[in-house]
Amino acid sequence: MGSRRLFPKKVAAKFDKQTAVIQSDARDLPLPDESVDLIVTSPPYFSLRSYRDGGEHFEQIGDEATPQEFVDALSECMVEWRRVLKPSGSVCINLGDKYSGSGGHNNATIGAKKGRGPSSYNKEANGVRAKSLMGLPWRFAMAQIDAGWILRAEVIWSKPNGLPESVMDRVRRSHEQWFHFVKEPQYYSAIDELREPHTDISLARMKAGFKGSGYQVQAGRVDGTGVATGETSVPTPNPLGKVPGSVWTVPTEPFIVPDEARETYDLPDHFAAFPQEWPRRIILGWSPSGICSVCGEGRKPKTGVTRTPFTGDPLDQRKRTSVQGGTRKWKDTSRTITGETCACDEPTASTTPAVVLDPFGGTGTVAGVARTLGRYGISNDLSSDYNRLAIWRIWESNHFEKSYAKHLAEKQVGQPSPLETYLMSFPGIGKVSARAIVDAVGNPFSLTSDITEAKGVGAKAEGKMRDALGEFGSWVTVDDGEDITS
Predict the structure, then answer these.
(1) 4 falls within a domain
(2) Are 270 and 255 in contact (CB under 8 A)?
(3) Does residue 371 contact residue 21 with C-beta atoms inside 8 Å?
(4) Model confidence over 103-118: pLDDT tens digits?
(5) What average pLDDT does the segment 235-250 reach?
(6) What is the pLDDT of residues 43-74, one digit of tens each?
(7) Is the four-CA dihedral 47, 50, 51, 57 of positive or negative sign?
(8) Alpha-carbon distance 64 to 48, whole Å?
(9) Which of 38, 113, 297, 360 is placed for a possible disulfide with 342 were both Cys, Cβ 3.0 to 4.6 Å?
(10) In whole angstroms, what is the distance from residue 50 CA to residue 273 CA?
(11) How many other CB atoms are there within 10 angstroms of residue 281's CB atom?
């Protein structure tokens, strides 16, 4: 490609059938009402950094004079996000706190606006005494509860590789908050996608008769279905794992733009890209893999149960007796995700991708991860500089291969990837063939791959499969030099 630009410096928007990068204020989005399934975002920190556009500082959220003005600005965003969010949708927002009098640590390297933020470490600022945390995440959360949002969870982001601090009279800050807000009590969730392995301690407690929220069987019932039996069953852990807790340990990730790319596309520096693991988990857990074209509901994972009965063997019969003196009905019960379901009797209708939005798009992390997971990702930012950075990262950098690889590694056997699902929509291409094609061509794929090398795929079917891949390619890629402005 040489020194040719993929897009002009001043680009207002760029999109294909899987991703969009748009330029607008987070308080005034160019999106229809109730069009977004999930919002995942991390607003600018209060009085910490100066983000640029065309090399110049511009008025932006985080630039307010007081903490209350900062919270008020974010509350204005939440009003707009309520408009674009579907009733079944969620907002997941990451916020960091700040110490009064601490100044803006990183402003010097990216051109801070003079006079913004306290200039000393030991003076009172904005009514908050010196050295005190300002409590910005809590102020924001309480304001949204008062505004009618439902706060479903606070998740602590524990950073095992957080930055050191030169403090001698308090603990080092090694966490931030994520808040999960919803509009309505009933909303989309697919928690089975996020279950974690049971610990040895949990399994030991189960054997001792403890019944916790992670267990699927209760005494006097069969497999938690609510159907009473004449036997006392022993609680067993959910085979899919336990529901994740409210502290997530996720290392920070370095984000380095190669010098060649920075020079070619005139890209800015960015020091605050959060790890891909955060949007990956949130997107899998709170946005559907597709929206049914018939019932309009998001598809949810469907689980199946396999039960193994006891045999007549005396040793087997001895194992039926529980530590509580009851008897077990089944020798073993396993549960796996077998497919998807919606309000339709049979989920056979076509689907459209769920829409995942980041109103403070920055480097495009959320939209890029959403793209790899088969959702429609929208990255919005007020700065055209950062929109160029997001466009390069999403369409050119291959930075999001990590998220896709982890998704495939954690995906349960039998669940097709987005590319496999698309291929199976073509007549004559079944599950086995689709899996073989993906194995042969990879993801991101190359049409120069020899599809005939895929196990079970012969030369006779190659033409049809290559046509399918070609159409999929036109869906997820953009021709060199294409840009769309508005």
Answers:
(1) no
(2) yes
(3) no
(4) 554 433 333 444 444 3
(5) 83
(6) 998 877 666 666 677 678 888 888 999 999 99
(7) positive
(8) 11
(9) 297
(10) 15
(11) 20
Last residue of a domain, one of 365, 386, 410: 410
Residue 443: pLDDT band (50, 70, 90) is very low
CA distance 14 to 384: 11
Residue 482 maps to a domain: no
Q: Name the nearest CA neighbour of 97 among 130, 144, 139, 66.
A: 139
- Say if residue 229 is in the same domain as residue 159: no
CA distances from 442 to 315, 419, 429 (A): 49, 10, 17
Nearest to 104 by CA among 46, 155, 150: 46
Structure tokens at 112: 């801070």
Taking the model in full, what pTM does it have? Answer: 0.73
Q: Which helix (H) or strand (E) holds 16?
A: none
- Domain limits at 171? 13-193+244-296+347-410
- Is residue 157 helix, strand or coil? strand
Structure tokens at 1: 């490609």
Which range has highest mean pLDDT (3-17, 149-163, 306-320, 467-481)?
Answer: 149-163
* Amino acid making up residue 115: G
In the block, residue with structure tokens 């674009």: 84
Quote the strand ranges of 287-406, DSSP E. 291-292, 300-308, 332-341, 351-352, 355-358, 376-380
